[in-house]
Amino acid sequence: TQLLEQSPQFLSIQEGENLTVYCNSSSVFSSLQWYRQEPGEGPVLLVTVVTGGEVKKLKRLTFQFGDARKDSSLHITAAQPGDTGLYLCAAAGGTSYGKLTFGQGTILTVHP
Amino acid sequence: GAGVSQTPSNKVTEKGKYVELRCDPISGHTALYWYRQSLGQGPEFLIYFQGTGAADDSGLPNDRFFAVRPEGSVSTLKIQRTERGDSAVYLCASSPSGSDYGYTFGSGTRLTVV
Q: Which residue from A33, B42, B58, B89 has the least number of CB within 10 angstroms?
């Protein structure tokens, strides 16, 4: 069974600060996805990374996939209150094609 | 439809009752997934359909839980003899095929068993 460790679990910062969220496992993934979820809504896909060492940027968000495809990070530059939400990493691969394993999530609060 | 639709959005039921949760995926998406999410946690896999068949039901917690997708589109998650521990948000997602490139999730059904 793949297990994803996400850290930190909670993050409370001021507007304008930078932050990084980490997602780690002892298993190799075929791909890794990052989602953002707001209260009362389902998770919304931000990005999928597939290649070891891959870096993707989405405005102020930078996503990295580790060279060995066992870890990933999400970096937010100059956080804004609108970035507040639950950030989830999810891994595909292993023996259960079609199934995603999610981390426990990082609850981010950005104060104005 | 334009997105994944789940009904009802909220369901309160008494312990021991039977409930059905419905998911209407994006038109043309062959893969459909059910997940369960507790407050402040990541979703936990329940079952995955490819077309009409359950390709992986390893996440169903016990035989009180059952899901169907008879025509390869709408799916229903059925829970018998509900228990308070079944209270959670039940999320449905769909994708064109497989999961490697991301799902589209519905807004979920919040189930409360009292």
A: B58
Contacts of A79 (CB under 8 A, 6+ apart): A13, A15, A16, A17, A18, A19, A60, A108, A110
| A41 chain-B contacts, CB cut-off 8 A | 107-108
pLDDT, one tens digit per residue, over A27-84 is 888 889 999 999 999 999 999 998 999 999 999 999 999 999 999 999 999 999 999 9
Tell me whether residues B33 and A98 touch, CB distance under 8 A: yes
Give ∠ CA B29-A35-A48 in degrees, rounded to 5.
Answer: 70
Contacts of A31 in chain B (CB under 8 A): 100-101
Residue B100 scores a pLDDT above 80? no
B62 Cβ contact list (under 8 Å, min separation 6): none
The C-alpha atoms of residue A98 and residue B75 are separated, in whole angstroms, by 17
